[in-house]
Amino acid sequence: MFDLEVSSALAVEVQDAAARCARTVAIVADDAALRRVLAAPLRASGYEVVALCASEIGRLDDMAVDCVVAEYWLGAMDGRQFLAALASHGIAAPVIFFAKSTDVGTVVRAFQAGAVDFLEGSCAERTLIGDVARACALGADRRRDADRIDEARRTLALLTPRERETMDHLVSGKSNKVAAYAMGISTRTAEIHRTRILRKLQVTNVAGMVRLASLASAAAS
Known about the structure:
Elements: H1 8-20, E1 24-28, H2 32-44, E2 48-52, E3 67-71, H3 79-88, E4 95-99, H4 104-113, E5 117-120, H5 125-156, H6 161-171, H7 176-183, H8 187-201, H9 206-217
Parallel strand pairs: 1-2, 1-3, 3-4, 4-5
Helix pairs in contact: 1-5, 5-9, 6-7, 6-8, 7-8
């Protein structure tokens, strides 16, 4: 059993950190007593906690969960299968695994599958709360990155096909004249396209186009 005694001094210390990150943490373990042990210090530190067994993860579909703390072995399901199950439900929150005992290979596979941390053995209260705070912060960063990518894609969608073709030539380093030649249009027409592109994208130069194009082509981590 994980030994997590709640310290009021520690709870006060981490209260601000908990408030700065996302509020809801899901604990997934088949042992109800273990769920209670893990939930107690998190609740004392200001987090909202949802405690579930593995068969209940579908309940997370309608919740804004910001971090998941899960037992690596959940019946016949291991951590990699658990991550796949979360993904199938569209849940992208950072996942921290824990196990009473494990081996290096299991930990490595967990990280390769996408876990952000792995706690083993008797888990100190400070370690659990600190790791959850970091996972919440990571989740918030990921959401911001995803929002920026989505916004870049929506902005580029404002361009007409011809404007997008012009932009592709310009961001590859071609001048207006060379881009016009490649497209079979006049330099003046290419310049008109460029002006419209800058206005629609709300940037002032080709460097701004490059930044948006790179961001739009990125995959949210």
